[in-house]
Amino acid sequence: MSVIRRDRLTTTKTYHKVTIRDDMNDIPEDEARQLLTRPLFCEDCPEWRPPRGTKGMLQASCGLLDSDGINVQLIVDLIFKRSPKTDVVQYKFSVFRRGPAARLERVFQLDVTQWPKGFPSDHHKPHQHFGDKRNLGDASWSDWTYDEVLKHFCAMTNITFQPPLSHPEELQLRG
After folding, report:
1. pTM of the complete model
2. Is 21 within a domain?
3. Dihedral angle sign, alpha carbons of residues 63, 47, 50, 94
4. How many domains does the chain have?
5. Closest among 67, 89, 76, 81 to 157, alpha carbons compared
6. What is the pLDDT of residues 139-175, one digit of tens each?
């Protein structure tokens, strides 16, 4: 059996002037929960956009504010993927904190993947991370709609989107 050491893998993705590194750190669970106890606001989140070089993926990222409108050094990063071949749908909704040297630290992440033919492994089942703690979701999460995923994410993170965020596959007309 071969093992890939995740601590040696580093890839960098830049979307909408926010850099997401695959080698990010997780903060301790208690600290993550503490950061998400107060109301947070995501104002005027950019439209869903496809990152360069990806197919079937849309992303929206934005900084978070507290109730006084002050930047709290947290970033919300929402990723939606739909495979055109397999029809697998993934919602990966995250909150990151800017750490030292602009390194991102995972505070919270909700990962819901919907597999039409069942889960390839337990790791692919819906789950959420509070910092370094991974919690498996229940089977019903696999049937959630976009609105249900977003509602759960907002409830767990105490985030309000102003204005509300549209479905990533919904065409928004400008006028």
Report:
1. 0.82
2. no
3. positive
4. 1
5. 76
6. 899 899 999 999 999 999 999 999 999 999 886 545 5
pLDDT tens-digit series, residues 71-99: 999 999 999 999 888 889 999 999 999 87
166 in helix, strand or coil? Answer: coil
Question: What DSSP element (H or E) covers 34?
Answer: helix 29-35
pLDDT tens, position by position, 99-140: 777 789 999 999 999 887 776 666 778 999 999 999 999 889
Closest by CA position to 128, among listed 101, 98, 149: 149
- Which residues are CB-contacts of 117 (< 8 A; sequence separation ≥ 6)? none
Token pair, residue 52, equals: 């360069």
CA atoms within 13 A on the CB side of 114: 16
Q: In this structure, is residue 12 part of a structural domain?
A: no
Q: Give dist(CA 113, CA 122) in Å, integer.
A: 12
> Tell me, what amino acid is at 47?
E
Range of the domain at 47: 28-162
